[in-house]
Amino acid sequence: MADLVVGLAKSVVEGALTKAQSAIEEEAKLRQSAQRDLVFITGEFQMMQSFLNVADAERLGNPVVRTWVRQIRELAYDVEDCVEFVVHLDKRSLWWRRLLPPSFLPRAAASQLDEAVGELEHLKARVEDVSARNARYSLISDSGSKPAKKPKASAAAAAGGGGAAAAFSLLIEARDASKRQQGIGDLTQFLTKKDDGLELQVISVWGTAGDLGAASLIRKAYNDPEIHPAFKRRAWVKIMHPFDPLQFIRSLMAQFHANSCKQPDAIIGVEVLRKMDSSQDQLLKEFEEQVKTMKYLVVLEDVCTIAEWDTIRSFLPDRNNGSWIIVSTQQFEIASLCIGHAYQVLELKQFSSKHSVCAFFKEGSQEDDDQVDETDMACTSNNEISVSHELSKAGGSCDLSKAGGSCDLSFYTKILSSKSKAAEGWMKSLPLVGRELQMNKLHACAAKARFEAWNVMSVWGIAGVGKSALVKNFYCQNMCQKDQLFNKYSWVEVTQPFNLRDFCRSLLWDFRSESLQAKDTAYHGAMSSKNPIHECCKLLKKYQCLVVIDDLRSTEDWDLIKSELVSRHSKSVIVVITSEAKIATHCADNEELVLNVKGLEADAAFDLFEMEVHRNNKTCPLNSKDKELKELILKCGGLPKVIVAIARLLAAKTVTLMETASSLNLRFMHELENNPEFDSLRGLLVWMQSYFRDCQDFLKPCIFYLSIFPLDHRIRRRRLVRRWIAEGYARDCDKKSAEDNGEDYFSSLLDLSIIQQPPQSVTTNLNDTRMALCQVNGFVREYIVSRRMEENLVFELGGSCCLTTQRTGRHLIILESWDRDMIVFNSIDFSRLRSMTVFGEWKSFFISDTMKILRVLDLENAKDVLDDDLHRIVKLLPRLKSLSIRGCHEISHLPSSVGDLRQLQSLDVRHTSIVSLPSNITNLEKLQYIRAGNTTTSEEPSTPCLPVSMLSKLCRPGHQVGVEVPGGIGKLTALHTLGVVNISASGGKAILKELKKLTQLRKLGVSGINRKNRDEFRSAISSHSHLESLSVWLDKDSENCLDGISLPLKNVQSLKLYGLVDKLPGGIKQDSQDALKEVKLTKLELEMDKLSKDDIAVLGALPKLCTLRVKQFKEGTLDFCVKQEGRELRTYQKVRILEIACSSSLKVNFGSETMQNLEQLKVDCCNGSSLKFSDLNKLAELKEVVLKGCSDNKLKEDLQTQLLQHTKKPLLKLE
């Protein structure tokens, strides 16, 4: 939680800093006092920002620090708002007023300036107070949130800058060495490596943050089961200061005795005391004998000076018996001098970017374990003998005399038989619900991996989503098949901190275990002392193994595993399970082998809930239509782990079930975190906390912002990104625009599964993160909501709200369920409100003159918003940056006062009755985004008020779909999105010349293109090198006006052409393969009389086309089977969505090489149309067919018959 607080504060402080610095640089005419105040505030905020950047978990655990961080955030909000107020006063025509004393100014202007300057003085005083508060409570100190105290100085620090620089240089060298020698940074490997020499070896261990972490790494190796038999004498001695030689020897001998005691029932401490109860001479003689004849391992903790080291070495001379000394020191100079000048350094463990533990060793003494004698890799090698020995001990047999030295498989056959029985029992006791499609995909991935000789596939999804259960079902199904693809199975969970040798031991143990998943860790003592890494590598190469690696958490850990265990020549398949998309992509051999497991859809979630309730209480009554239950299950986010936990609780509440469900809905996350009944979810909640903590700071405000949208609400991607920009969460930087950063943030949240693709929809690209719609996972949303309430940032009005003075925040949500109580609304303090979002009915009292700093007003699809309401909105909210009245059909006029919204960046009036934009809109120099007009596509179902039939009519040729724009639109040079502009109504050629000036356009929609203006249109868009999306509506009777001209489509990814006859314009077809590869079109929408066979062939060759929508008006045939010289060509290879519509009679055919990746076929049936499809069985990846507005029963029956004959049994859905 604290990390989210800091993430929010960082973002707000950064925004305030940017505004203040910009004001200082650009508002040179500010009064001198205001300038000085801004400079002071900027300096203080820079210090606060530095503190936030280094704030760690220890600091944030202090509630005083958290309170101070919140105060910084609120102060930063107010500074940013004040600076924007000053900028808002800066009307260019009145700039000279700032040069005059206040007495010379008109009263109104003077009062506004005085207000701004007074506010800055007040903010300066608040900043001084916050800084003083830090000094009073010692919040910023080297010791974190604790009172400042002088830390123990390290040798590097004592040495000054030169020592610190040397230490940092060594750290870089150690990390480079670790990358070069993957898997070698392990003390156990040093101590057990093969070496012909027996000279005494010394290794030094040094940590960049003192002894933090070093002792645990040494202790792990010291207690390793491979070390025990290798060293007959072991001792761990903490060096006393000053050094006492006799005490040192007594400590060594005491531990030598303790570690060599073999009497099973002996009390070791007592036995050691008896041994030590001898004369000093006898003890010294015994010590001398021990170090001469026995191989020993001695750990020396806290060696501080080289003099101490020299003295110690005089007691531990080299006797050529293979002994080792480990020196633990906090000083890198001592660590290096103990080894000598010719040393190497290697990173053992990285705890953070600045904290690592490193090992120093003699140069050339550490060899890569891969450099072993070739005989070790033969079947008769020592490692094979080790495997055979283990099999024999476990009751198996091994005959090394057979050809090739291969082992008898009877032991593994016995293991596999036992595992198969366990697998059958597991599948019966824990059946999967709602995972049929994903199970099919998993089996298909495995088959493809075997066929293509790929070794690694990956499965990812957030914690609790059931990815491990899905893979375990796949794992068990493979075991239980008669004709098995694999003959060995192993499931291993990755433990932290990661150690490759321990990982391989676990892998070997599960190979040899008869249980479905071995959990016993007591095997370490029984395992062979031979290298487990090599043994695993040999098994994976020699046999056809199915290995599941569960809970992989970093790409670095995978790189270690891959370098040692994954081989191109192996027939084994490895399935990696992880919670992060980037790790899954990094591990898999091909993007086709990456499976994202998402939450269960609503029906499947209820089925699982019902099954679990009845498993625990068969008489418990359930109603799938009950509102409380539906809401509760939605809040589970489709996570089986959460659904099962809640079902078990409710199963015990037969009488009070609905009351309990209602109570859970009201305090969902609080109950999960505090009710002992949900202890099974503790791990998930801890993971959730760490998941958000590890998110990059700039994403945390975006995550909080998602809670603005109601549960299960479908959110337009563009709506979300534009709001982030208006709020200042996505900002311009040196290399990227705010728009690009916003899109990147959206992609990041998608990769993190915080937002996800809505159910029953198909992505339009193999790597599509720019989907039109998204949803917030219900469970994730509830987690965010519980945190936003603590932070008092977002407040909502829903149901029947009571009157209270505590309802305040920066963002207001008015839900559809709210009873619209004016008394409650007027009691709210709106002085700090930044955004307001209305769902459902609009009331005129929703706008208040106290909303002085409101920057985002989102009324998308709100009902009963009238022209008078819009006029009042524009008048009372001069600081708006984003205004959306999208879908407000009653609005027909955009007032001219909109030209006074000088901060406005986004204006969305799409799907309203507005037909023209006011002339003074050209004054809005910051405007970047204008959407207008009455068009719609299947991608944008944001107009629920309009039926499909009406939308179809709106898009027919000849209908005015755009709006009239004023002359001078070319002055809005910041515009990157504009549409739809009615060219004919706006001045024809003249307006096209204006559009030509808008060189930053990325998305453009125009209507009214005809023969008279087509050349000017082509000329206008030819200069738009950034254009990515182009939509064109042709005038009636000008349907063939684009014939013979070539559209410049170099960077266009989305193209929509409405009103064509029977020929595509130039620019789509390319004459060479090289030119074809440069075409970036991924989405194409065509509305035309007839699509010719030649044009079908042209479209089929587009290399990146993923979505194709065709509406044909005249009867005919769409034959997507493209042939050349009698041979069918592979066409439409990347197409995943195909949408067909017609207003007459149409036949659609497919070939065996056509659209082999098509997943969704949409059919839009118009009145009087007749459609017939053939060869649907040839669409190998088809998942569903969607029929919209269909009343033709014959078509439904024909489609259903074909889908039943399809190997993948696609679904038929009616809309």
From TrEMBL:
UniProt-listed GO biological process terms: defense response to other organism
Alphabetized SUPFAM superfamilies for the sequence: L domain-like (SSF52058), P-loop containing nucleoside triphosphate hydrolases (SSF52540)
Domain Disease resistance R13L4/SHOC-2-like LRR: from-to ranges: 833-1197
Domain NB-ARC: start-end pairs: 182-365, 454-617
CDD domains on file: RX-CC_like
Annotated keywords: Coiled coil, Leucine-rich repeat, Nucleotide-binding, Plant defense, Repeat
Residue ranges constituting the Disease resistance protein winged helix domain according to the UniProt record: 708-759
Recorded GO MF terms: ADP binding
Family classification: Belongs to the disease resistance NB-LRR family.
Protein name: NB-ARC domain-containing protein
Organism: Brachypodium distachyon (Purple false brome)
